[in-house]
Amino acid sequence: MQDSLGWDDLRLTLAIVRAGSLAGAARALGVSHATIFRRLKALEKRTGTRLFERVRGGYTPTPAGEDMAAAGARMEQEVLGVERRAVGRDLRPSGTVRLTTTDTLFEGLVAPMLGRCRAEYPQIALEVAISNETFNLSRRDADMAIRPIAEPPEALIAYRLARVALAVYRARDADENAASQWIGLDDSVSFPALSAWMQAQGAHARCDYRLDTVQAMQSALRHSDARAVLPCYLGDADPTLVRIGAPIAALATDLWLLIHPDLRRVARMRAVRDLLIDGFARGDVVQQLAGTAQADRMST
């Protein structure tokens, strides 16, 4: 044997033995059939040993192949053990957590929670990306996200935080006798339920002021006689606005905390996750999200 064997060589042999075929080994290792074939031929040439016999329906290992696969199985257990022990050592909540959420959620709810996180876990460094774009957690654009969405992606660990209520608002000093105009979201923001609701209400035809964030809509509403649909936690907390009627059931949206599955056992992720879940479960936050915190400020 001219060169020493590496983990990739042993893992290749083990995968072929377990699958009984090159195609099965390719699927297990996430590479192409041609790559497995080429790597096996190179390994046999390098070791000067035939590792498999081609038989009907697949590949069967020679004694040398069995020996190499057994060594691969032992090394696999060692590698997995090292990984588990490494995760187990991450007991202190420390390091960086990158969170993404929307501008309105951060301003209205998340910022105080992260303030408590800084006080309780001073060794955790927080990086917060304020964006209305959907970050790709699978590519690790962020470690976790707080998003109002109908269905969370199956590839992510999802925790349902709350149900977000929305209602119609106007400026407190708006002229109620003026023709009712609307402020809305432009086409860059995907909110099909709101678009359908405004269409059904005839509001689309009277909406000639559109913005690309909900927070910008709130600011515009303060200086207008128009109406707009806002999350209740945002509109109810603004003393310059008045809610018109009850929350709109058709627009209620679930709020989710999303985490990449590879990070769910990391101590710093668990610490921030638990703090956020507890924060959204507080009675005052639940009332804000449900639109019941400021019911006395509703306009008829």
Q: What does it look like?
A:
- The structure is a single chain.
- With 300 residues, the chain is of the alpha/beta class.
- It folds into three domains: 7-89, Arc Repressor Mutant, subunit A (Orthogonal Bundle), CATH 1.10.10.10; 95-164 and 253-290, Periplasmic binding protein-like II (D-Maltodextrin-Binding Protein, domain 2, 3-Layer(aba) Sandwich); 166-251, 3-Layer(aba) Sandwich (D-Maltodextrin-Binding Protein, domain 2), CATH 3.40.190.
- Helix content is 42%, strand content 23%.
- The protein has ten helices and 13 strands.
- It has helices at 7-19, 22-29, 33-47, 63-89, 103-120, 192-200, 214-222, 232-235, 267-281, 283-290, and strands at residues 52-55, 58-61, 95-101, 124-130, 144-148, 157-164, 166-171, 182-185, 207-211, 227-231, 241-244, 253-259, 298-299.
- Strands 4-3-5-12-6 form a five-stranded mixed beta sheet. A four-stranded mixed beta sheet has the order 10-7-11-13. A two-stranded antiparallel ribbon has the order 1-2.
- Helix 6 (192-200) links the parallel strand 8 and strand 9 (207-211).
- It is elongated and about 90 Å long.
- One of its GO terms (biological process) is DNA-templated transcription.
- InterPro entries: LysR-type_TF_proteobact-type, LysR_HTH_N, LysR_subst-bd, WH-like_DNA-bd_sf, WH_DNA-bd_sf.
- One of its GO terms (molecular function) is sequence-specific DNA binding.
- This is LysR family transcriptional regulator.
- Residues 5-62 form the HTH lysR-type domain.
